Amino acid sequence: MKINDTLSGLLLALFAAAIFIYAGTFPSMRQQVGPALFPQLLAGGFMICAFLLICKGLRQTRTEAWFSLPPWFGERRAVFAYLLVLLSLVFYICACEALGFLPTATILLLSLSMTFGARLAVAMPMAIASALGIHCIFYKLLKVPLPWGMLESIAW
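Structure for DUF1468 domain-containing protein, as requested:
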């Protein structure tokens, strides 16, 4: 899918503004660095990228369409793979609390790997190792409370 850079830049600017405004509602902390700092810095970076995209889009020739479908859009398997990525996000949102992060991430990584052509012998260990690695990074190092779901009894 080809979207004109001006339109992409405007959408990115709106997204950056929404992040910046929402992060401003985060509670302040006694320390100098509060929870709003990183999201607002990220929003600032997005705004710079949006400005550059808008400038690039305005310099492009006027003959380009604002929106065009990619050549793969007519291929059934490619469209299925694209939709599976979007549906996996919905599945994660719906299933993560009940199943827990580890089973949900393993199912998602396994199904996406198999869809994109990996063999089961490679996809299964990769999905399990990746889910465990991501869990350790977020849960242990970054202290992000990931849901345990049905694995609550073995939570570490």
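The radius of gyration is 20 Å.
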